[in-house]
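Changelog note: in this version the structure field was regenerated for every chain. One regenerated record is shown below for reference.
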Amino acid sequence: YTTLFRSALAYLEEASLAKSRAILTASVARHDKADFHNLLGELAAKEGHIEAAAEQYRTAVQMDPSEKNFFDLGTHLLRYRGFEAALTVFSYAVTRYPKSDELKVGLGIADYSLGKYDDAIEQLCRAVDLNPSDTRALEFLGKMYDIAPDKEAQAMVRLARFAHDYPNNAAAT
C-alpha cells in the first residue's frame, strides 16, 4: 500500500499523470483508502477535471475525516471559486480540529472571499495565536487588516508581535 502510494505520488510530481492514474486506479480497486482518493483528487485537478477532483477529495473526507483531507478539500474549493462550499467545509473542520491554524487560515480566506471581512480577520488572528510563526496567516492578515476597521487593532497587535519576535524574518518587514 505504501509503496503504491509513493509510486503514484512520484509520478504525479514528475507530471507522469497517466502512470500515476494507472497506479491509483489499480490501488483503489485493491485497497480503497482515503489517501488514494485524496491523491486522485490532486491528479484530477492537474488534469483539469475540477468536479471529479472535488468528488475524490469529498470521498477522502468521508473515508477519513482527517485535518489534511478537510484542508485539501477546502483548498480545492477555494482555488476554483467554490467559496460557499469552502466556507462550509472549513467551518465544520475547525469544529473538529479547533487547534488547527491551517484550517483557520482556510476559513479566513473563505470568509474574505465572500466579503465577510470581520470574520476573516478574526479567523486569521486565531490562526496567528495558535501558531505565531506561521507566515501564511500573517501574510494574509497584513494584506487585509485595514479592510475591517473594527478588527484592525486586533490584527495590528499580531503583526507587531511577529515583527518584534522575528526581526530577521523577511515577512515581518
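Spot check on this record: Residues 17-30 form the longest helix (14 residues). The chain has a mean pLDDT of 90.
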